[in-house]
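ok so I'm stuck.
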Amino acid sequence: MKHFSLFLFLFLFSCSSVYVISDHDASIDFKSYKTFAYLKSGIDKAEISDLDKRRILKSIDLELESKGLNKSKNPDLLITFSTNAKEKIYINTDYLYSNWHYNPYFFGPMRSFPINQIEGTLYINLIDSKTKKLIWQGKGKGGLSDYIKNRDEKIGDFVSEILNNFPPAQG
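replied:
not stuck anymore, here's the structure
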């Protein structure tokens, strides 16, 4: 099962549309957080390749540093992430060209057919290092494809979409 999950997640970042939501503890003043580090034990549990883990970590680094946070050995925030993938089957009722189609082996109305698509999710969790409580979570969900070009860029875009909601608007 681990290899199946790994295989499915590898193709997460080829999709063009990503559904993103986030949640946070409204009592937290996010402006007080200036530094971050990764919670290795949480990241080790993600069932994806080490290459993709490094790509995600690099993308998180770039996004948080662009927001004014710095990596530290004594951080305010601990960061971890996890992944999830599941197969969905859609029934395609569209016809090619028209209701009637000719090919050398068949002439007549086209039939509907099932389409398998993998839906993958990336969770990014931010934890207060003093209280060890989850204070912010971003979730990105998208359809999976078996064709990817430029995995670094796709992962960067996916992480950027999720962290676009951090820090949350205060008020």
